[in-house]
Specification:
2 strands, binds zinc ion, about 240 residues, mainly alpha, single chain, two-stranded antiparallel sheet
């Protein structure tokens, strides 16, 4: 190991000039010729995938943000008593939140993204509700519906994360969650329209799910069929 005669920085055997001050390196004592030595720096700069992903998300955010600001400014300057830009702004914001925001995070976590998305969808719905002076549907139907759907999404995501290996159990659990979801949605609609709180559509969904669950349990217990399916469909 040698040092630069000009600035004193430590020099690798392979360098022909100092990386810091560009002073030529002449060291007669180094046995390795510069051509044979291993270059200490990579020839090509490799940007980590996470950084590239967040950079792309940042550019996408700007693509969303700039036209929105322009439209809002135009709308405010040429105000004919009608705030049309709010539709564009709200829609852009929800698309950004659902599809760009997760990629901006260093470590996307489902317990952060899914509640944030749910709040975003509730706010988005509330914007239209207030513009159109809706009559009670926001609190009686929309918000419970959004919460039920996002709870379903969250539980499915968690199941997929922790039960990755055993696919028949995974599919069975998701089907159970689908039927619970359909029960919840139907009861919410029936409650909102003041119908009798008796499940009808969700019973049919439940029956379909049960039949599928029976199929998947038989697949799980039948090793040969399972192996054949795995081979055929790469699952
Ligand atoms: Zn130097």
């Amino acid at each position: 190991m040698s040092y630069c005669v000009n600035c004193g920085v430590e020099l690798d055997d392979s360098v022909k000039s100092c990386a810091l001050c560009s002073t030529p390196v002449i060291n007669p004592n180094v046995s390795v010729s510069p051509e044979d030595a291993v270059d200490p720096f990579p020839a090509r700069m490799v940007i980590p995938a996470g950084v590239r992903r967040r950079y792309a998300a940042f550019i996408a955010s700007m693509v969303f943000l700039i036209p929105n600001i322009v439209c809002l400014v135009i709308n405010l300057l040429l105000n004919f008593g009608y705030l049309w830009a709010i539709y564009l702004n709200a829609t852009s914001a929800i698309i950004w939140l659902l599809f760009v925001f997760p990629f901006l995070l260093r470590k996307p976590k489902s317990y952060i993204i899914i509640p944030v998305d749910a709040i975003g969808v509730i706010l988005y719905t509330a914007v239209f509700y207030s513009i159109q002076h809706g009559e009670g549907w926001l609190f009686k139907l929309a918000i419970p519906l959004i919460l039920v759907v996002f709870t379903f999404v969250f539980s499915v995501v968690e199941w997929i994360k922790y039960k990755r290996r055993d696919w028949p159990i995974l599919v069975t659990s998701i089907l159970i969650q689908v039927s619970v979801l359909s029960f919840a949605i139907e009861l919410l609609f029936r409650y909102y329209y003041s119908l009798r709180l008796l499940p009808v559509v969700s019973i049919i969904v439940f029956a379909c799910c049960l039949a599928l669950i029976a199929f998947f349990i038989s697949v799980k217990s039948n090793k040969r069929l399972r192996a054949w399916l795995s081979r055929k469909f790469f699952i």
